[in-house]
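tool=predict chain=A
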Amino acid sequence: MPDMTKSDTATAAPDAVATAAPAGAPVKAEKVRSLWGDAWQDLRRNKIFIISAVLILLLLTITFFPGWFTSANPTYGDLSKHYLQKPQLGKVFSPDWLGYDAQGRSVYARLIYGARASIAVGFGTTIVVTVVGGLVGMIAGYFGGIVDSILSRLVDVFFGIPFLLGTMVVLNSFPERTAWVVIGALGFFGWTQLARVMRGAVITTKQSDYVQAAKALGASTTRILFRHILPNTMAPVIVVATISLGVYIGSEATLSFLGLGLNGVSWGNDISDGGNSIRVAQWIMLYPSIMLTITVLAFIMLGEAVRNALDPKTR
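tool=predict ok
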């Protein structure tokens, strides 16, 4: 057998060193990321998520601090000076910037303060829908049997009622439609989809080994539901809730446009009022419509980005 040359020995040495390790040397474990960690890494590189998150952050800032953006009163009208005055695009952030409506109110001021109503109704309805639909779906999926049958038929009954039509019937019975009334009406008919999503996720999760082990160790039903099942079924619920938030904002504007929404400053009310003056003052309807479109689109894009990040099939 021929002897190895020096070059062969030099080439083989690093490989031997790389593969051989001392017997007692600790092996460094590779850090394993969770589903949420992987999703966050994907979202940080997603341009759609970044754009939608920036837009939503700006909208939330406008909602909580409208005084930072305008000092004008959205309900004050001056017919003698500002009746249908055209936008003064050069006066950025001033009351004259986007013109005035038929009652002499600043369109820009109403645009800023209208965000508060739409965002509040959207978030409030989403919270109600998530809590009610999540609990109903979790109970139906976990217990099964007669409980699942009763709750599933209840979901089918509500699911068969047209969403906007049912909400309109309920709101029509209230002479004073505050934000709480609108949230309650939208949530009353909007929880069915999330209940179905939660039920399907719970049925899949309750077959897992860790749930069966918790049952064998004598864990209570409440502990199993809220400690083991709920954290592992939140991914699809968060996706549906995020997308639905934009839908509820659009629904509130639709109801206000039809005269059945909020009694106050709202984008839907401004769009409805602008329809009466669309031939001579298009800006009254144009700017609230643009803001509403951007808001709904931002939440839907955020939900789509989160769904793609949490879906294992896209990896």
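The two ends are 51 Å apart (CA to CA). Residues 13 and 307 are 49 Å apart (CA to CA).
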